[in-house]
Write a structure and sequence with these properties.
The chain has helices at 17-21, 54-67, 69-72, 106-112, 114-117; strands spanning 28-34, 42-47, 87-90. With 118 residues, it is an alpha+beta fold. The chain has one domain: ANL, C-terminal domain (GMP Synthetase, Chain A, domain 3), CATH 3.30.300.30.
């Protein structure tokens, strides 16, 4: 089903990695937000620590939400990351990058994690 068939608009992805970085999350090595024209936006976080337990992942997700609340409040409700189910934590260096600058390739992340985004 499409977003409009479910009564929800498709989301333009306005949350940026810069928004996450300015919150000074010292446990986040890198991140990207995926969700352009999807039903919801998903924040992918590469954690600083590669050896995180499931409890550590939940704590990280719970720490991200209040720190991102300020810029989330400026977004439309369907653009916000307001629940930890919209945050995916992966080991550092897992997200695909460009060869030239090392930027995270959003389209490749969408393709790699299509099951989460659907």
């Amino acid at each position: 089903m499409t977003g409009s068939a479910l009564g929800r608009p498709r989301v333009w992805c306005f949350v940026t990695q810069n928004d996450i970085r300015i919150t000074r999350l010292n446990f986040v090595r890198n991140c990207t937000v995926i969700g352009h024209y999807k039903l919801a936006v998903i924040l992918f976080i590469e954690a600083v620590s590669d050896s995180m337990t499931p409890d550590d992942v939940l704590k990280l997700k719970d720490e991200v939400l209040p720190r991102t609340a300020a810029f989330n409040s400026a977004l439309f409700p369907h653009e916000r990351i307001v629940d930890r189910e919209y945050i995916v934590v992966v080991p550092s260096g897992v997200l695909p990058r460009t060869k030239e600058k090392g930027n995270i390739r959003r389209k490749a992340v969408e393709e790699d994690y299509v099951g989460i985004l659907e």
